[in-house]
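Structure tokens please, single chain.
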Amino acid sequence: MSGVIGATGGKFVLLAATLLVHGRVDERRVGVAIAPGAATSSIAPDLRAGRRIAIGIGAMRTRADTPRAGDQPAGVALTIGRDLIDGNPIAIDFPARQLRLLSARDAARREARMTAIPIARDADGGMTVPLSIDGAPAVRATLDLASPDGVGAPVAGGSSRIRIGGVALAGVTATVAAQPRVGLLAFARSTVIFDLGHDRIWIAATR
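Here you go.
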């Protein structure tokens, strides 16, 4: 990758399980990678100046403790992982390729029109969500936001009546997997808010 090609403002480019956007760090325009599957955030060493940084994506600004320094992909200066996402709900409109950082007030207003998918946390920090396929009783499925896949389960491939936390997902087909899992692309036709700090994914009607 030579840069965050095609990403402007809050528009993102999806690369595997990472969303690439243009943003600002302390008013410096940089490439930002949103990586919900990464446990921690990191920043290019040359940007790690003070103890706090200002992060801007689109019209939204937030301040955060400066992440650890680490090598970044080409064209990216800041990788935002779950440690920052937990405190900053992120709205993602996958069909429109639009991403927004939300304030608590804006998140609450949007969530009032959406349906919550509850997230359970394992003792080791892993996340699971209820998954039902073809009308079967729901089972706990690993929420693997580092995976570029959609839904996998030990069922016949091609199963397409899928519900996550009671929400029906149109246009999503399950593939055969040893254990139930839900990857980022399960939401590829949806508008969602990842509010991981409150153990919720909020989802609007599938398009």
